[in-house]
Amino acid sequence: MDTHKEEVADDFVAVAEFLNPSEAQMAKGALEADGIRVFIQGENANSLVSMALGSQLLVSRKDESAARELLGSVGESIDPGDDLA
After folding, report:
1. CATH code for the domain in which residue 61 is found
2. Which end of the chain is more exposed for a tag (fewer CB within 10 A), N or C?
3. Closest to 38 measured CA to CA, from 58, 17, 23, 20
């Protein structure tokens, strides 16, 4: 992986995980409505194999606190120390 891609990947953190793609989209919409840039990792794989794979919401590190506060108990929150591999 080149250095630029590694730097970009390090700028984002997973703040929630969903098995249901619709719930991931709703959470994404809530974050975007508040001005938080968010990506869904695993979105396409999840739609192909429903309920087998989870989708993670990724936000910028600078928005992590605000995103976690907005999401509250929606979905399955991921603690900052959780191993996602």
Report:
1. 3.30.70.790
2. C
3. 58
Q: Which residue has the tokens 């990792």?
A: 41
* pTM: predicted TM-score of the whole model, two decimal places: 0.67
Q: Is residue 85 part of a domain?
A: no
Tell me the C-alpha to C-alpha distance, in Å, between residue 9 and each of 20, 27, 30, 56. Answer: 24, 21, 23, 14
The residues facing 17 across adjacent strands are 56, 76
- What's the pLDDT tens digit per position in 9-66? 568 999 998 888 888 899 999 999 999 999 998 876 645 555 566 788 999 999 999 9
Q: Has residue 83 been placed in a domain?
A: no
Structural domain boundaries, residue 72 = 3-77
